[in-house]
Design a protein that fits this description.
Elements (H helix, E strand, L loop, with lengths): L24 E14 L3 E8 L2 E8 L9 H14 L6 E10 L8 E12 L13 H6 L1 H4 L3 H23 L3 E2 L5 E2 L11 E4 L2 E5 L4 H6 L7 E9 L12 E10 L4 H31 L12 E3 H10 L13 H15 L3 E5 L22 E6 L2 E8 L4 H10 L8 H5 L8 E7 H8 L21
Parallel strand pairs: 3-5, 6-10, 12-13
Antiparallel strand pairs: 1-2, 1-4, 2-3, 4-5, 7-9, 8-9, 10-11, 11-16, 13-14, 14-15, 15-16
Helix pairs in contact: 4-6, 7-8
The structure holds aspartyl-adenosine-5'-monophosphate (AMO).
The site of aspartyl-adenosine-5'-monophosphate has 22 residues, from strand 11, strand 15 and strand 16.
């Protein structure tokens, strides 16, 4: 005999993904209603929680005679289910039954009691075909689907793997301030705000402060935190606030030492994601999630320009940098010739790099720097830094910066500092390109752009 389950049965809630491992019998589940199929004789509800979805089944009772308490209870449940709005959060006690015929997970829960914990309004403001902008207006509802849930689980795993990689190698995690007295990258794209009697700026990068860890004697440091750019563009890869993954290490001989760490870090991140979610990514996104192999191919910017020109694309930017199409071509080349989705473009012209990049000893027009391209776009910039203060100061002046304003930063280099280098990498760009998503808006929990400050 099946054990009767009703609202008085005491059972701890099981997360839906954990139902599969339980034997048939009484269970409690809780989540939100995804769909209701209200047939005359039977009702099906797809219930979703943060771990997955399961089918609830209720043998519908449409009427009950006086005195028939069972039928009256079943009638109440039936009516409750008929009135359930999509998105309503419910708590359900019932009986779990494994049944291979059930398409959704091979199990179902026969409802013994159902409590509406928080009802949704009957009309859902967004649908599957709503525009991205509309979906972002209702992001909390947009995030309720399996794909979005998976994206942020992947992000969690990747970030965790990055942290683990660094922690295992004795890096120190730092949290640098985002309120600054001057620009961290350049005067362009700078957010300015009132700060008591003065003006403050939002950090565009932890650049200055991660470098400060070098004269501080920290050796190797990392930070995963927000960065802000007053970038008015509406491209698929720009946000005004984004999560920047940064590292800075001492005793590098050149940018190649930074790249060696950088690629290992990415391999660690991708391996963790593949191990935990490879199968699910294939199911939900429809492609095989591939772990890259190090070393990634490396080309100098000069070689990259040639690759782009040879591929028949002649729109090189006036400053000699790769334009987005150029980046795609270099990526395509790396894929074709090296089977790699990643490629380092190195040794950028000094004219298109910040003042703090170290220049070649034998050719000051080139820098010890790199960009990392992944599946067609830039995800990161890195470099060896100029640590000789006179040279640094001269390079700052050459770029039109005021050494007075940079005084506190230049001081970092006046009391002894090891040679060092590091990189900054946009987390959302990595995720967007790893999951073949069209925009960083899809992989950012709450996107911030020129016209978006809510929710
Ligand atoms: P850079 O300015 O190239 O370098 O930025 C590093 C990486 O940050 C990401 N990124 C962005 N992501 C989303 N929206 C934006 N508006 C945005 N701007 C940048 C990109 C980019 O490759 N201090 C240096 C790094 C270093 O040398 O350590 C820097 O900030 O993925």
């Amino acid at each position: 005999m099946e054990e009767a389950v009703d609202s008085t049965t005491v059972i701890e809630r099981t997360r839906i993904a954990d139902l599969a491992a339980l034997p048939d019998g009484p269970v409690a589940v809780a989540g939100w209603v995804e769909t209701v199929r209200d047939q005359k004789k039977v009702q099906f509800v797809v219930l979703r929680d943060e771990t997955g979805a399961a089918q609830l089944v209720n043998p519908a009772t449409r009427e009950a005679e006086d005195g028939d308490d069972d039928a009256r209870a079943r009638l109440a449940i039936t009516n409750e289910i008929s009135g359930l709005a999509h998105g309503t959060f419910v708590h359900v006690r019932g009986t779990l039954k494994h049944d291979e015929r059930v398409k959704l997970g091979g199990l179902e829960v026969k409802v013994g009691s159902l409590e509406v914990v928080s009802a949704a309004k009957p009309e859902t403001p967004i649908a599957d075909d709503s525009s991205l902008d509309k979906r972002l207006d209702w992001r909390f509802l947009d995030l309720r689907n399996r794909k979005q849930n998976l994206i942020f689980r992947i992000q969690t795993t990747m970030e965790h793997a990055f942290r683990t990689y660094w922690v295992e190698r004795d890096y120190i995690e730092i949290h640098t301030p985002k309120l600054m007295a001057s620009a961290s990258e350049s005067r362009a794209e700078l957010f300015q705000l009132e700060y008591f009697e003065t003006t403050a700026y939002l950090a565009q990068s932890p650049q200055n402060f991660k470098q400060m860890a070098q004269p501080a004697g920290f050796g190797a440091v990392f930070e995963i935190a927000d960065a802000f750019r007053a970038d008015p563009s509406f491209t698929s890869r720009h946000a005004t606030e984004f999560t920047s993954v940064d590292a800075e290490i001492s005793w590098v001989e050149s940018h190649h030492d930074v790249m060696a760490m950088h690629e290992e870090l990415l391999v660690a991140g991708f391996t963790a994601v593949q191990e935990k979610y490879g199968k699910e990514i294939e199911e939900v996104f429809g492609f095989e999630f591939v772990v890259p192999t190090a070393p990634f191919p490396r080309v100098t910017l000069a070689e990259a320009r040639k690759i782009v020109a040879d591929s028949g694309h002649d729109v090189v930017r006036a400053d000699g940098d790769l334009d987005p199409e150029g980046e795609r071509r270099v990526s395509a080349w790396a894929k074709e010739t090296h089977g790699s989705e990643f490629v380092f473009v190195t040794d950028y012209d000094a004219s298109i790099r910040p003042y703090y990049h170290m220049r070649h000893a034998d050719d000051p027009t080139l820098t010890n720097s790199y960009d990392l391209l992944f599946n067609g776009a830039e995800i990161s910039t890195g470099a060896q830094r100029e640590h000789r203060v006179e040279t640094l100061e001269a390079q700052a002046v050459e770029k039109g910066l005021d050494p007075e304003e940079l005084g506190w930063y230049l001081d970092f280099f006046r009391y002894g500092v090891p040679p060092h280098g590091g990189f900054g990498m946009g987390l959302a760009r990595v995720l967007m390109l790893a999951l073949h998503e069209p925009s960083i808006r899809e992989v950012t929990y709450l996107f911030r752009g020129p016209t978006r400050l809510t929710p």
